[in-house]
Amino acid sequence: MPSIRxxxxxxxQARESNRVGSAGRALPRRAVLSMLAxxxxxxxVRAQTLPVVRFVNVPLQDWLPxxxxxxxxxxxxxxxxxxxxxxxxxxQTAEFAAAGDCDIATVAGVLALLAVKQRLIPNKxxxxxxxxxSADAQHPFQGVVAxxxxxxxxxxxxxxxxxxxxxxxxxxxxxxxxxxxxxxxxKVNFVTxxxxxxxxxxxxxxxxxxCVGTDFAARAIHDKIGHxxxxxxxAPPFDHYSPAFLVxxxxxxxxxxxxxENFLKTYITAIxxxxxxxxxxxxxxxxxLQITDPVVVSGFYLEKWDPTLAPDPGSVALDNEMLMGRGxxxxxxxxxxxxxxKLVDNARLAVLGK
Amino acid sequence: xxxSQSLANSAAAKSExxxxxxxxxxxxxxxxxVPVLLLALWEVASDTGxxxxxxxxxxxVVLKTAWSLVLSGQLVADTGVSLYRLFAxxxxxxIAGILVGVITGRSALVFDLLDPVIQxxxxxSPIALLPLAIVYLGVGDFEKIMLIAYSTFFPxxxxxxxxxxxxxxxxLMAARTLGATRRRDMLREIILPxxxxxxxxxxxxxxxxxxxxxxxxxxxxxxxxxxFRILDAEQIFAIDVVYVGIVVISLLGLFFDAVFMRVRRRxxxxxxxx
Lengths: 354, 274
Description:
The structure holds two protein chains of two kinds.
Chain A: H1 2-49, E1 52-57, H2 64-72, H3 74-77, E2 81-86, H4 93-99, E3 104-108, H5 109-117, H6 120-123, E4 125-130, E5 133-136, E6 142-146, E7 160-163, H7 169-180, E8 189-192, H8 195-203, E9 209-213, H9 214-222, E10 227-233, E11 240-241, E12 244-249, H10 250-255, H11 257-276, H12 278-288, H13 294-299, E13 304-305, H14 313-323, H15 341-352
Parallel strand pairs in A: 1-2, 7-8, 7-9
Antiparallel strand pairs in A: 3-12, 4-12, 5-11, 5-13, 6-9, 6-10
Chain B: H1 3-19, H2 27-30, H3 33-47, H4 59-72, H5 74-106, H6 108-121, H7 130-137, H8 141-165, H9 169-177, H10 183-218, H11 226-235, H12 239-267
């Protein structure tokens, strides 16, 4: 007890002596600390000064301009920092952007139509512009890989066919192609399986065919798991088809119009780079999709990238046709919702000069 | 004050104390107070815009959507498919769990052989096994049934084991003394009835887990069922349909738990939870 009392009585003195005692030493220590803080934190502070644009990142070729922009520093050139928000599946990108978990996302045209129907566009999302990618005979984008028992499209009747989801472009395009090939679609058993697991399911004989992008198709064919039954996006009626759009979170777009324009400049610059350097672009894609085998790298196709970002009414008409009775009851005119094309034109003029 | 009057007053006070909660509502009604309040809060919060109605559509919109799905036959079909998968998997897992639980409870040798495997597999989530299940078990109902059976098995086996082990040795000795010498008689007349409360606890826990696994399993490699419908609706931004699926799962869980408790009370009239 006496010792406690002593220490209480001594405490103010000790505090005083500490304060006085430290005053003399504090200056150099503070100076050293502030120098250290300046040295350590300066790059972070500098990086934070660039406005961040978060994009939802899915390991699919549609995200190539984002990867190219990051790797070549195009984002920094236009005073922004692109930051990926990785997600596993490719079907929830619009939801992410609508919820504000990212600022920019790519959505398939069919999903853009459904988003309009549910008022997600324009209430929460801004339809920015077409993605800039398209499929044609020289640039196929999606196809069907089947096991050896499947020789023709008709053979798919009564068989298990894997698709990403029953409202994905994979499913809608393959059913459209099947109808052209006189297949009774009601006799095909479609099963929803995530893309990375489809090749394993085909290999194990659990499904008879898979609907995948050219990257997964190239892997499956290279590993002799199946053969290419045919392309869906890249073959009629999808032989001149733009599959997707860019969307932005409404709040983000309203708060940061300049940042949005700088993002568009970055994006157009990246597409121009892809157009000018197709082989290097393929290497970037292979790296992001973790394709290491050079045979596979040479086996998959790049989409056709066009930096003009011009809308394609024909593709929207196809999207409407595919969704009719499967989500929409009457055609939706997407061009009404492309309200930012002037901003896109300005960005294109600034980057391409035309 | 006469003693009798004092006692009467005390009894009245006790009775008043006992019935105070009943002032709110009779017991059966009381159980509905919080759920009804939550539903009212849901409706008001969404309808007044306090919560974004895209992410939480008003209750009346969800009910309207549910009714249209009932009329189209889709909701009934999906619920039927899900219930078939649920009960096939649950029954498989429960029977296997009870059998293995009884055997490990009665035989130290079998326990030593199986327990390390059971303990090693028990923490492995069936959802983590989904990608492998597609490869090994296919993309039909069988894969989903087996995943549900897997998730049911572990709570049942562990509870059954402890139920069998917790039978009082004095009771066993008494039974032997009274002439129950055959193993089958001991099992049927003494061990299983004594272990039943534990077994039912395991079965009840695994019923809830089965619902969770069912929905997860139906989200991959499916084209029907409540889990499939929820994911499909989410992908086309039909959030009201997502809520219909969630509400149906919740109601099914509530209903089957009530049925389960009724069956337990019927089978174990002597057993009361403390």
